Amino acid sequence: MVVTIQTDVIDLTQQAVRIQSLSGEEGTVASLLYDEMKKLDYDEVWIDAYGSLIGKIAGEGRGQSVLFDGHIDTVPVNSPEKWTYDPFGAEIVDGKMYGRGTSDMKGAVCAAIVAGGEIGKEVKRTGVRPEGDIYISASVCEETFEGAALEEIVSKVHPDNVVIMEPSDLNISKGQLGRAEIKINAHGRSAHSSTPDAAVNAIHEMNSMISGIMNLESPTHPDLGTGISVVTDIISSPYPGASVIPDQCQITVDRRLLEEESEQSVLRQYDALVPLNKQFTMHVTEAELSCYTGKKRILKRFFPGWLMEEDSPIVQASLSSLQAIEQDPEIVTYQFCTNGSYSAGIAGIPTIGYGPSSASLVHIVDEYIETEQLTKAAEGIHALAMDLTGSLSK
């Protein structure tokens, strides 16, 4: 099985990486992977309203179901001339496959699809099914809206447990930091720049807020880390300000979220920084999710953090399952946001993270994945799929 998995995973990952698939433009790679699932022994394969691909291997109905999710959209390649290898070439050099999306995260998706196919073959050969249903999803638009596409998937398959396949170095992640995007507006009064005393310069007003954010004592969590606040852009109005003092100034704050933080609790932290008698407004950013299928939806950019207890059934069962195939995972937490923001952070479904490669290799020039990690991930996903459907029901 190892040799078959290795050949099939590497080949499928190369095919997927060679197709550019920015958020909202995943249709071609979804079609490739759909065809692959249809060739393999999946019981059902479909593409949903958002454009995510889902494959099902039906269980006997006496165990719990598990969903393995990974996204097939990638961030852009902004400077291809800086790459040593073609960003869409999927070249393998010294055991490393280079290309955009290798680590983040077409490699993990392809490993899961092949692992699911192996289970399907075993069912066909032996007639023995897993105890519960197994689902593999290749979701869309994660890079722009973590969890939005997964919400649609979960609403249809209703999994008892979820495995997020973001890079974890084949360790088990029991949680993650969430992410919020906050818009803060300072309101002033315009005047000609030759008469500044007649104006309230909104940029000057915003200076105090920025200073407050820079000196804000960020909340911390022993497992998740720090809920940092970073100002990522600033815009004044009118712009350009030709001899006009601006009456509006807006900043965007990227806030990393700890477990159980809400929109209201986060906004209160910034509201407390507003100087007395100054006019500020703030809100969580809303933006349009636009899928390649034509599906559109206005959503808030607020993606909760979450944390599973280390002694929870899904964490301990996953640990035992991987140790049984001679993998040696550590229990870690993701220091970035994933689709788990929906499954665990909103829906409350028991969730872990498990995937090949390292978070340090995503979104970078010369992104790569080690081919050995691809093979081990497929083996690990195979073991988790078979074991979790049964062990969590006992």
UniProtKB/TrEMBL annotation:
> Which prosthetic group or cofactor does it need?
Zn(2+)
Q: Where is the Peptidase M20 dimerisation domain?
A: 176-273
Domain of life, per UniProt, equals: Bacteria
Keywords (alphabetical) are: Hydrolase, Metal-binding, Zinc
Q: Tell me the Pfam families matching this sequence.
A: M20_dimer, Peptidase_M20
Question: Which InterPro entries does its entry note?
Answer: ArgE/DapE_CS (IPR001261), Bact_exopeptidase_dim_dom (IPR036264), Peptidase_M20 (IPR002933), Peptidase_M20_dimer (IPR011650), Peptidase_M20A (IPR050072)
Q: Name one GO molecular function term.
A: metal ion binding
* Designated name of the protein: YgeY family selenium metabolism-linked hydrolase
